[in-house]
Structure formats: structure tokens, C-alpha cells
Amino acid sequence: MDMSIKKVVLAYSGGLDTSAIVPWLKDNYDCEVIAFVANVGQGDEELAGVEEKAIKSGASSCYVVDLREELIKEVIYPTLKTGAVYEGQYLLGTSMARPVIARAQVELALKLGADALCHGCTGKGNDQVRFEGAFAALAPQLKVIAPWREWQFNSRQSLLNYLAEKNVPTTASATKIYSRDANLWHISHEGGEIENPWNEPSDQIWMWTKSPEQAPDKAEHIQLSFEKGELTKINGEVVAPVKAIEMLNAIGSEHGVGRIDIVENRLVGMKSRGCYETPGGTILVAALRALESLVYDRTSLKYREEVGLEFAQLVYDGRWFTPLKDALLAAATSLADQLTGDIVVKLYKGNVTVTQRRSPNSLYSEAFATFEGDEVYNQKDAAGFIRLYSLASRIRALHTKAGQ
Asked: Could you report how far apart the first and last alpha carbons of the chain are, in Å?
């Protein structure tokens, strides 16, 4: 143990792990522990009484920082412009929250003159890499403590026994069926019966969304208005970013929108199964893809897709504070200058269907696309285009014939 550490800022949630970390740090490092709680929209229930709980665990103080607007404006909206989706399905809910949490933790540590940062991430997951990668980029001089890679505890019961020994109150029990992570954008579920990929998720898994079977029998239409790739209005009404996501989550959840069940490749090498609920995000992604189809030319769309693929990997891998992120985001943001317009989506029993689209920057022209007679497109011109387009194939075939 590094006994030179005198003050540590701990990313604190109030759950079993971080409740045990507070006294463990004091026991093993003989240091002052300051609890840092990030409000990223995980809900009032999760935050209720968290400051008192931290103090009772042994923290000298507890800071609760509201990061919801930063999460949307600085990470979610920019990421949406890139079209990033990890492995074709995951909308990066946990991954996108980590940069703003880590940055705020570092800022607090520097402000308070702390020697070290601490997190409760396990040695098997992605989050340890995301947090420590951010710490390294923002404050490499601060030491990092990762208790799950150091301490002797290996079960919930051992942590409960330790808390009892230290007289630290907790509402946790020895049995925890699921591991969950919630923020304004999504909620994730791991563990329990879904650790076996042959098991269908039970109704106990899902917490936000209705099942498609329980969703209303009547469809609902929503109009979303965008300016330069960012949502500005819902059904014609101006809505602030945090409120907008909350509204779309509520509407989408009612219609069973946004559930996925995937086996993904973790950064650390193993596969894991997760069930995710991202109702508002699923609606936004569908709307933006529809707007892109109206506005982007073919080569621009192809490039945006390439950027999105790379950006999804970057966000998932915790490389937010890198020059590559800045470069990719600059490209996507430049393209998104054209993403202004209105999209209407229909929500019905788990599905999001785009029904209407319009944009002042639309490249779609009825005059060109029509099957009726027109004067703007001479179909005879296509013959020369096809001859040139297939020239290489024609030459190759002639060479083959001459060699026979």
C-alpha cells in the first residue's frame, strides 16, 4: 500500500461495493476519503440519502454533482451525430456516461488537493479501463486505487461481513440477482438468469419499458425537429435537452420501444450478455437515420457510417479524451451541419417506424425520382454511364476471351 496517499476522492454510489470501499481505504491507506456522487439521471431513488450514507460509511464529506446536461450536450448529442452503435445494436448508454463522470471526479480531486482517485469497478469489466484512461489523460499525476484488484473480498457476503465488523449500516443483502447501471440515456441489466445465453429474459429483467404484448393497441405519432443534428422540438414545442430525453423515454417505454438482448465483446477480452433499455435513444437514432437519408449524398453517408463504426469502438473502449475523438467528432459535426428538418415516427408495440420526413437541405427531388414523364432526366444518358461504369469488367472479359 502507498502510505503517502493522504486524501482520496472516491466515485461513490452508495451501493454495497462503494460502502465497503470507504472504510477499507481508511484501514489500508490511513487516508481521508471524500465521496463523489455523479447525478447522471439514475433517478431520485438512487440518490436519496446518499450523502448521509457516505458520511456514515466513514467519508469526511460527500459531493453530489449534477452532470445530466453535460452528459447530453457534450457526449450524447455529439455521439448521435457520428451514428455510433456498438456491434450493430448497443447505443452505448454506460460508455457515454463515463467521460463526464471521470472528468468531474478529477476536477473535484484537483480542487480539494487530493493525492488519489478511487473507483469501484471490477477487474473483469470495461469501466476500469474507461475511468483510468480518463484519469491518465486529465490528471496523470494523481494515483489511482482500484480496490477490486487489491482487496481480499470475493463475494457479497464477505463485504457484508466487513461492513458489519465496521458498524457501517447497509440495506444490501447477500443475494443480488442482477447488476444494473442506469442514467438518463438507458438502463442496463446483467447477471441472474441471463448469464446463460439460452435463457430468455424474464419479466423481472425489464424495469423501464412495457413488453410489446402489454403496449397500447393504438399507435402514437411523434414529430421530432432537429437543427444541425440536435433535437430542438417535440411535436412543435421547444424542449430543453434533459427534459427532451425524459419525455422520449416515457413515451417510448409506454410503447415497448428500446429493448435489446445481446452478447457483446468486452474490451478486456471476454463476452458478456446484457439486456438494455434505451427507449428515447432508439427513437432519436431512427429519426436521425431518416433525416440523413434525405440530406446526405451517397459518399457523405458512406463516410459517416465509417466514422460511426470507429467512434462506437472509441467510446466503448474509453478513449474519449484523445485526439482521435476530436478528429472523428469534427468530421461528423461538419457533416451534421446539414441535418436540419422534421421527422415523424410512429411508435407501435416495440417498433419505431418513420412515416414522414422533410428538410430544407433535402437532396430528394420528385422531379428526378418520378416514374412519370419528365424533362430533367434523360434516360438515354444512362447507357453511356453504364458503359463507362462497367468498363473494367468489359476489358477483363475481353482479355479472358483472347487468352482462350
From this structure: 77
Task: Calculate the CA dihedral of residues 48, 274, 201, 183 and round it to 10 degrees.
Answer: 30
Annotated catalytic residue: which of 98, 130, 259, 304?
Answer: 98
Grid-cell match 434516360, residue found: 379
pLDDT at 219: 98
Condensed to tens digits (0 to 9), the pLDDT of residues 94-124 reads: 999 999 999 999 999 999 999 999 999 998 8
Please write down the HEC assignment for all residues of 196-255: CCCCCCCCCCCCCCCCCCCCCCCCEEEEEEEECCEEEEECCEECCHHHHHHHHHHHHHHC
19, 127, 357, 359: the catalytic one is: 127
> Chain centroid to CA 237: how far?
26
List, for residues 133-173, the tens digit of each pLDDT value: 999 999 999 999 999 999 999 888 999 999 999 988 887 77
Residue type, 355: T
pLDDT digit string, tens, across residues 273-311: 999 999 999 999 999 999 999 999 999 999 999 999 999
Active site (annotated) includes residue 179 = yes
Distance CA(226)–CA(77), nearest Å, equals 11
User: Of 17, 130, 253, 319, which is the active-site residue?
Assistant: 17
Point out the catalytic residue in the list 60, 156, 158, 179: 179
Task: Identify whether 261 is a catalytic site residue.
Answer: no
